[in-house]
Design a protein that fits this description.
340 residues; alpha+beta; NADH Oxidase; five-stranded mixed sheet; four-stranded antiparallel sheet; 11 strands; binds flavin mononucleotide; Nitroreductase-like
Length: 340
């Protein structure tokens, strides 16, 4: 975090504490790209270029979505702490800024709570066959509509061929493989295991699978084995992400609008926390949108119309084991707290 002024007109220390909790926000590859820049009368929200993904997020859509999930989480936590704040969008790629958080009129605190923020986590394992209730789906559609977006609900069965094809593309892309390895923390001995990235436990890997991933993604091994069927093998090993029943939700937005993607990220937080309260878990799978060979078909499957395009793709359902029993993905602020 950077500080540029020493005469704040609002309680910065409280906001700093709130910001630590808000770092529990979902974000792509757990790079935690957000940056809060404290000014005299507002806090600027931006991102740090070193935490923006490369080949795994070619259009930086996931970056902007992740800044939106963080912003919404921050506002939920601030409201519960009694702070009246609002967001003024002011997207500027040159200065890596999405907008300003400013003192606002007091609004009723959100029904989403800090407890939800702290307990929520991603699920990447297997799913039961239990169906998400229709009333829950209807509520999600309404939440999206109120935020100016449309959510399309697709049976996993219909999305499965796209998921498999997208995984094949993903694992076959050398740049993506390199970046995945760079952010994977495949053993507690990894120096950044308690800071950021994707840990073995939440990637749902046992020791042998973690060792295999470390080996297969090493550039020389990857290059040597890719022509020998490695990509197919990795796709097969990811079968829990592609198999099972349930539904997929796809957030559809209009046109090419960076600020709109930040807003879509805010919506993702609302949907995710509400689902989580009902014991329903979420697995975003961005590559179905990034893969040039699946995004068009996905848009058709969602009935995209009038300039709509898919912004977020996530599986929704009930995990076969309790994810809350597993060590969650870490956050850098927590590592600092533990160390001090
Ligand atoms: C915009 C966005 C895109 C994501 N894409 C993926 C994805 O493609 N595959 C995946 O397994 N998880 C994905 N995630 C989940 C993140 O990896 C996860 O939120 C992060 O590792 C932190 O873990 P937590 O949500 O359990 O706190 C995504 C999350 C966000 C917000």
């Amino acid at each position: 975090m950077t500080e540029t002024d020493s005469t704040p007109t609002y309680p910065l220390d409280r906001l700093r504490r709130v910001a630590e909790t808000a770092a529990r926000a979902a974000n792509a590859h757990n790079t935690q790209p957000w940056d809060l820049r404290y000014r005299t009368d507002h806090v600027e929200l931006g991102w740090r270029a070193e935490y923006a993904l490369g080949p795994s997020d070619p259009s930086h859509r996931d970056l902007r979505l992740s800044l939106g999930t963080y912003l919404e989480t921050l506002l939920i936590c601030a409201a519960e702490a009694g702070m009246a704040l609002r967001f003024e969008p002011d997207y500027d790629a040159r200065t890596a800024r999405v907008g300003r958080i400013v003192p606002g009129e007091w609004l009723e605190p959100s029904t989403r709570s800090v407890a939800d923020v702290e307990a929520r986590r991603v699920w990447r394992g297997a799913w039961t066959s239990q169906q998400v209730p229709g009333a829950v789906i209807d509520r999600c559609l309404k939440t999206a509509e109120e935020a100016g977006f449309r959510v399309a609900v697709v049976p996993t069965d219909a999305a499965r061929p796209l998921l498999v094809r997208a995984y094949h593309w993903f694992f076959g892309h050398a740049g993506i493989a390199r970046e995945l390895l760079a952010w994977a923390r495949l053993s507690p001995r990894h120096p950044d295991y308690r800071r950021d990235g994707l840990n073995d436990v939440m990637l749902v890997l046992n020791k042998a699978e973690a060792a295999a991933m470390r080996t297969f993604f090493t550039p020389a091994v990857y290059r040597a084995l890719r022509p020998l069927g490695l990509v197919r093998l990795l796709t097969t090993l990811s079968s829990s992400a592609t198999s099972g029943d349930g539904i997929v939700m796809v957030v559809l937005g209009q046109g090419d609008d960076p600020a709109g993607e930040v807003e879509a990220g805010r919506l993702v937080t609302r949907l995710w926390l509400d689902l989580f309260r009902d014991g329903i878990y979420v697995h975003p799978q961005s590559h179905v949108i990034d893969c040039p060979g699946t995004v068009g078909e996905l848009a058709r499957l969602c009935g995209a119309r009038g300039g709509e395009r898919p912004l977020v793709f996530f599986r929704v359902g009930y995990p076969t084991v309790d994810p809350s029993a597993r060590p969650r993905h870490p956050r850098r602020g927590e590592a600092a707290t533990t160390a001090s």
